[in-house]
Design goal:
The protein is of the alpha/beta class and 330 residues long. It has helices at 21-32, 89-94, 96-117, 153-171, 197-206, 226-238, 257-267, 292-298, 306-328, and strands spanning 12-16, 36-41, 60-64, 79-82, 120-126, 177-182, 185-186, 211-214, 220-222, 224-225, 247-249, 254-256, 274-277. Strands 3-2-1-4-5-6-11 form a 7-stranded parallel sheet, sandwiched between helices. Strands 7-10 form a two-stranded parallel sheet. Strands 8-13 form a two-stranded parallel ribbon. α1 (21-32) crosses α6 (226-238) and α5 crosses α9. Mean pLDDT is 96; it is low at 1-5. The chain binds nicotinamide-adenine-dinucleotide and uridine-5'-diphosphate. Uridine-5'-diphosphate binds next to α5 and β8. Keywords: Decarboxylase, Lyase, NAD. InterPro entries: Epimerase_deHydtase, NAD(P)-bd_dom_sf, UXS-like. This is SDR family oxidoreductase.
């Protein structure tokens, strides 16, 4: 199809879930690269505050809407990123049926939108596709080990169904779809009450509260700094030709939960200790991405070591929590 003439401005890009943690960084990067960006978000777990530095940009628009409702956009879209879905276990388990519908109905709505606009589509999928994995590290051809009846299923199985919708749309020739399987990502603009490990540990340490380790803390995760992830998402969206299958995006450095707690405590002057709390059901024991496909197809690998990424994130939370205290003061 002939590209539409946009004058000197770049592409017109929809970011569903653009007011969330990753989405706000993505909107910022896309605007910085000279594109027009439309953010569509219901503010379920995102916040207008995440977009405050973008709100005066004339090339940025926000639409407050649930992706489960039919979506109409008047402008001709070149690209659609689908990041709309709560991502932390407490958030996605708060209304599990809506989480499932967000992935299934919401992704279906956005795929139809992309088809009408002949826009390239990128789905923010997840390492949860692999469940509590029996293969390590996880490669894209591993089919996973997911409990379809447990409390994580609304998220894991929703994202698996969304991938099925994506690859059926691709095979049918309806939409040029790309799927990123994102591993644990952290950084500024996570909500302090989000519930994920990095934000929990940093906020607890800054408040001199005990760090809550679930279970014995020997379970592992691999933590990717958000700027690295955003770079990978944009490369995947722009990659020609279509890579034809999912691509893992994550940092292969693997840490136990105890190691992360100790690292956070070593970086913050705090009176915090460590306490143990029950391990949530179906909590994956080990997780580390094999990123050979991303290296080959996208010439991408993470650049920010955990030590540095944590320092940036701690500094951001220090300032965000100080602002919250100022606002609350009568
Ligand atoms: P987040 O919760 O901060 O952001 C999700 C955004 O989607 C929020 O702004 C929320 O309000 C919006 N949203 C949720 N449901 C919606 C709905 N029905 N309609 C419209 N908007 C809706 O999470 P995040 O960490 O920024 O994750 C972004 C995406 O990346 C998610 O799809 C998530 O599944 C995926 N992902 C993230 C990680 C990670 O570690 N951050 C890992 C794997 C996958
Ligand atoms: N976790 C923890 N304490 C917390 C939050 C999480 O020990 O305060 C553990 C959790 O049980 C899991 C790991 O940290 O083993 C990562 O949890 P998170 O919710 O960040 O992401 P996910 O489980 O989806 O990878």
């Amino acid at each position: 199809m002939a590209r539409r003439n946009r004058g000197s401005r770049g592409k017109i890009i929809l970011v569903a879930g653009g007011a969330g943690f990753v989405g706000s960084h993505l909107c910022s990067a896309l605007l910085g690269a000279g594109n027009r960006v439309i953010c569509l978000d219901s503010y379920l777990t995102g916040s207008p505050a995440n977009l405050s530095s973008l709100q005066d940009n004339p090339y940025f628009t926000v639409i407050e809407q649930d992706v489960c409702d039919e979506i109409e956009i008047d402008e001709p879209l070149d690209c659609v990123y689908n990041l709309a879905c709560p991502a932390s276990p407490p958030s996605y388990q708060a209304d599990p049926i809506h989480t499932m519908m967000t992935s299934v109905t919401g992704t279906g709505n956005l795929l139809r939108l992309a088809e009408r606009h002949r826009a390239v589509f990128l789905q923010a999928s997840t390492s949860e596709i692999y469940g509590d994995p029996l293969e390590h590290p996880q490669q894209e051809d591993y089919w996973g080990h997911v409990n379809c009846t447990g409390p994580r299923a609304c998220y894991d199985e929703g994202k698996r169904a969304a991938e099925a919708l994506c690859f059926d749309s691709l095979r049918a020739g309806n939409v040029d779809v790309r799927v990123a399987r994102i591993f644990n990502t952290y950084g500024p603009y996570m909500q302090p009450n989000d519930g994920r490990i990095v934000s929990n540990f940093i906020v607890q340490a800054l408040r001199n509260e005990p760090l809550t380790i679930y279970g014995n803390g020997e379970q592992t995760r691999s933590f990717c700094y958000v700027s690295d992830l955003v770079e990978g998402l944009i490369r995947l969206m722009n990659r020609q030709p279509n890579p034809g299958g999912p691509v893992n995006l994550g940092n292969p450095g693997e840490f136990t939960v105890i190691e992360l707690a100790e690292l956070v405590l070593s970086k913050i002057a705090t009176a915090s200790t460590i306490v143990h709390a029950p391990l949530p059901p179906d909590d994956p024991k080990r997780r580390r991405p094999d990123i050979a496909r991303a290296r080959t197809l996208l010439d991408w690998q993470p650049k920010v070591p955990l030590q540095d990424g944590l320092s940036h994130t701690i500094a951001w939370f220090q300032s965000a929590l100080a602002k919250q205290r100022t606002v609350r003061r009568p």
